[in-house]
Every structure is written in structure tokens, then in C-alpha cells.
Amino acid sequence: MARRPRAETMQENRQRLMAAARKAFAEKGYAAASMDELTADVGLTRGALYHNFGDKRGLMAAVVHQIDAEMAAEARRIAESTAPGWPALLAEGEAYIAMALRPEVQRIVLLDGPAVLGDPSKWPSQDSCLHATRDAVDALIADGTLLALDPEAMARMLTGAALNAALWVAASDQPDLVLPRAVVAFRQLATGFLAKPGPGLAPTRSGPQIRGLRTTSP
């Protein structure tokens, strides 16, 4: 039987380690997760972990990047299911905030992530989100939807507001009650950039109604 290419084996090992780490970090938290147990669970050694990620912090960074990128992609899909332009951009930010109700997102990305990796606004996944928002803002300024302000400043305010709202929800003792408040505030802040602001949008008493979003992990 032919041997598998080394690169293929390394990629599979990396994926196995990340899947195991994702489960361990979500269930136990970063500090309590044992790297010996994690590697043993997938039949690998600490050497494989160090080779692929450098150390435990490197593994955490890879997992956070993976989840945060998934969050951004899902928020974009939700935005694409709404009306184009400004409603889509608003829906994308609201969807990201609402994902803070998911236990995995709360624990790994929004609680342990900043504690271990530092300022979330400097994470590569957030930088990618900023560039996408900047492109959307540029288009909305060009068509007259948004005020002709500095597009980078506006993009940073919008992404920063969504991120900090999600951090607030995750850190709260009552995230289900904080989420509607966070979404209302985000909407109010965001609509201040409109060239011709329309009526505000408030969530229902049962909470924000965000199309296509599951706020709990499957």
C-alpha cells in the first residue's frame, strides 16, 4: 500500500488537533485544558502539537481564528439573505453580536480569546472583517446612502461596535437579556452614519429577530 504524502498527513494531524482543542477549550476553558489529554485523545504526541502550532497559545490562536472566521462567514450569509446595501451591512453586524449567545463562541472567542491572545481588534480574522466592511462602506458612500465621512473611520466604528457588543453579551451574567439592549444600541449608533436616517428598528420583546441565525450551537 502506498504511503500517504507527508504534507497530507501533517494537514490531517493539524485538523485533528484543532478539532480536539476546540472541544476541550469549549468544555473546560483554555487554562484547564490539558495538552497531554488532548493529544492522547487523538493519538498524537506533544511533538505534533509543537510542530504544528508552536505551543498551547499557538493552538488557541488557530482555533480562535477558525471560529471567528466561521462567525464572519455566517454573518455575511445572513446579510446576503436580506435586502442589499445598508440593510445587509446592518444585518451582518447584528448577526455577529447575536452569536455571542453560543456557548462555544462565548467561551473560546469572546472570553478566553482576549485573555490569552490580547486585543481582538488586532486578530487577523477581525482585520479581514474590517476590510470587507470598509469595501461595503465605500460603496454606500458612493451611492449616497451614507454620509461622506472617512470610510475607514466608519468601518472601524461599525466593526468595533459589533465586536464590543458581542464581548459585552458574552461577559454578562444574563446574556439573553443583554443581547436585545446591545442590538438596539448598535442599530442606533450605526444609523447615525446614514445620509437620510430612517425610523429606528427595535427588537421585539422576545429579543432581536435575526434572520437565518441560530444562537445556540447545534
TrEMBL record:
Q: Which InterPro entries match?
A: Homeodomain-like_sf (IPR009057), HTH-type_TetR-like_transc_reg (IPR050109), HTH_TetR (IPR001647), Rv0078-like_C (IPR049484)
Q: Which PROSITE patterns match?
A: HTH_TETR_2 (PS50977)
Record keywords: DNA-binding
Q: Which domain of life is it from?
A: Bacteria
- Domain HTH tetR-type: where? 11-71
One Pfam family from the UniProt entry?
TetR_N
Positions of the UniProt region annotated as Disordered: 197-218
DNA-binding region listed in the record: 34-53
Name of the protein in its database record: TetR family transcriptional regulator
Give this protein's Gene Ontology molecular function annotations. DNA-binding transcription factor activity; transcription cis-regulatory region binding
Species? Paracoccus shanxieyensis
